C-alpha cells in the first residue's frame, strides 16, 4: 500500500511552475529546452506514479494491459528523469562543448538500457511482476537506485572538475544544493519505499534551478517582450558555428542626444514601444535590446532584408508617443549572416 498524498502536492507545484514558464518568452537555448523536458518528465512521472500506485492496490479490477502500461511507463520515465537531471546540470556547466558525440552517447547508455528493461519487464519480470499478492519488485528493481547513483556521481565529478565553467560562484553553490536535494531524496526513497516522497525532493530541486537559472526576467528587458544583452551573449555562445541566422541591427540615431532633448522617461517609453513593435513585426525572429538604443534581430536565413528594412523605415517615419509628447526618431541598420 502506497501513500501518494505527497505526490499530488508535487504535481500541483510543478503545474504552477509550468504555467509561469510559459507566461513569458523563452530563449531557445539548450539549458531552457532541457528544463522544459525536465518539467514535462516530472509531471509525467508524478501522474504515472499516482496512477500506477492506484491500480496496483487492486490490479485484478483493471485490464493487465493497462496495469503494465502504467507500471512500465512509470519506471521508464523515472529512469529518463534521472538522466535529464544530470543533462540539465551538464548543460548549465557548458559540458556539451567539452564532450564528444561518442562520450555523449555513452552517457545515455545507462538510462537507455534501463528503459529497455522497464519496457520488457511485463514479459521478463526483471524490474517488477504481479502474483496473487499484487505488485512484486523484480530482481532488477533496485537498478533505479544504481542508475540514479551513477548520474549523481557523474554530476558531483563535473561540479568538482569543471566548476570554473560557471560564471558566478553562487551558481555553483546552487547546483551543489540541487544535487544534495536529489541525493537525500533517493536515500529517503530507499529507506521509506511505501511513501512517494522522491517526487517531492525532485520538485524541490526543480524550484532551486528555476529560481537560479530559469527566471524569465533574467533574460528579458524590463516591461518588454524582447531579450536583453545577457540573452544575446548566451545565445550566440551556444549557436556559434551550428546554425545560420540573418542578423539585422538597428541603432537609434544620436540616442544620448535625443535622450537629453526628450528626457530619460520619454526615451525609455520610446524604447519600450520600439521593442514591442519589433517583437510584433518579426514573430519568427528573436529580438534583443543591447542597450543605448541598439537592437538586434536574429531572423531566419530566408528573411528578406529589403522587406525587413521597408517595415522598419515605414514605422520610423511615424512618431513614437509618450503621454502627450510626440518623438521623431531616426535609425540606421546593418545586416550580416551569422
Characterise this structure.
With 338 residues, the protein is α+β, with helices and mostly antiparallel strands. The chain is built from 11 helices and 8 strands. It has helices spanning 5-21, 30-57, 64-92, 101-124, 143-161, 169-191, 198-214, 229-239, 255-262, 264-281, 305-316, and strands at 128-131, 134-137, 245-252, 286-291, 294-300, 320-322, 325-327, 331-337. The strands form 3 sheets. It has a 4-stranded antiparallel β-sheet, sandwiched between helices. A hairpin with a 2-residue loop joins strand 1 and strand 2 (134-137). The model has no long low-confidence stretch (mean pLDDT 88).
For the biggest sheet, the summary is: 4 strands, antiparallel
One letter per element, helices H and strands E, the order comes to HHHHEEHHHHEHHEEHEEE
Number of helices: 11
| Beta strand % | 5-15%
Order of adjacent strands in the largest pleated sheet:
4-5-3-8
Helix vs. strand class: alpha+beta
Shape label = elongated
List the helices and strands and how they pair.
Blueprint: H1 5-21, H2 30-57, H3 64-92, H4 101-124, E1 128-131, E2 134-137, H5 143-161, H6 169-191, H7 198-214, H8 229-239, E3 245-252, H9 255-262, H10 264-281, E4 286-291, E5 294-300, H11 305-316, E6 320-322, E7 325-327, E8 331-337
Antiparallel strand pairs: 1-2, 3-5, 3-8, 4-5, 6-7
Helix pairs in contact: 1-2, 1-7, 2-3, 2-7, 3-4, 3-5, 5-6, 6-7, 9-10
Amino acid at each position: 500500500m502506497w501513500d501518494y498524498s505527497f505526490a499530488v502536492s508535487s504535481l500541483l507545484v510543478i503545474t504552477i511552475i509550468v504555467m509561469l514558464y510559459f507566461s513569458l518568452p523563452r530563449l531557445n537555448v539548450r539549458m531552457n529546452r532541457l528544463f522544459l523536458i525536465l518539467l514535462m518528465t516530472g509531471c509525467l512521472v508524478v501522474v504515472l506514479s499516482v496512477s500506477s500506485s492506484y491500480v496496483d492496490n487492486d490490479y485484478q479490477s483493471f485490464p493487465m494491459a493497462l496495469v503494465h502500461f502504467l507500471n512500465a511507463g512509470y519506471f521508464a520515465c523515472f529512469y529518463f528523469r534521472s538522466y535529464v537531471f544530470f543533462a540539465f546540470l551538464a548543460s548549465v556547466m557548458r559540458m556539451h562543448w567539452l564532450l564528444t558525440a561518442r562520450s555523449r552517447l555513452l552517457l545515455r547508455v545507462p538510462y537507455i538500457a534501463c528503459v529497455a528493461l522497464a519496457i520488457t519487464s511485463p514479459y521478463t519480470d526483471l524490474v517488477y511482476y504481479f502474483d496473487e499478492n499484487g505488485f512484486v519488485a523484480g530482481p532488477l528493481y533496485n537498478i533505479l537506485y544504481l542508475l540514479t547513483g551513477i548520474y549523481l556521481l557523474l554530476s558531483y565529478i563535473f561540479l568538482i572538475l569543471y566548476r570554473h565553467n560557471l560564471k558566478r560562484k553562487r551558481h555553483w553553490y546552487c547546483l551543489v544544493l540541487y544535487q544534495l536535494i536529489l541525493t537525500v531524496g533517493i536515500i529517503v526513497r530507499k529507506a521509506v519505499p511505501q511513501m512517494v516522497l522522491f517526487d517531492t525532493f525532485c520538485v524541490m530541486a526543480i524550484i532551486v534551478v528555476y529560481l537560479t537559472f530559469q527566471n524569465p526576467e533574467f533574460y528579458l528587458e524590463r516591461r518588454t517582450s524582447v531579450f536583453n544583452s545577457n540573452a544575446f551573449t548566451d545565445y550566440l555562445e551556444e549557436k556559434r558555428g551550428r546554425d545560420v541566422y540573418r542578423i539585422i541591427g538597428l541603432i537609434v540615431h544620436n540616442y544620448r542626444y535625443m535622450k537629453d532633448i526628450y528626457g530619460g522617461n520619454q526615451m525609455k517609453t520610446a524604447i519600450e514601444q520600439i521593442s514591442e513593435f519589433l517583437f510584433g513585426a518579426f514573430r519568427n525572429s528573436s529580438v534583443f535590446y543591447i542597450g543605448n538604443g541598439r537592437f538586434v534581430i536574429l531572423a531566419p536565413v530566408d528573411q528578406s532584408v529589403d522587406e525587413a528594412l521597408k517595415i522598419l523605415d515605414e514605422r520610423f517615419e511615424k512618431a513614437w508617443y509618450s503621454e502627450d509628447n510626440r518623438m521623431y526618431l531616426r535609425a540606421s541598420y546593418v545586416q550580416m549572416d551569422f
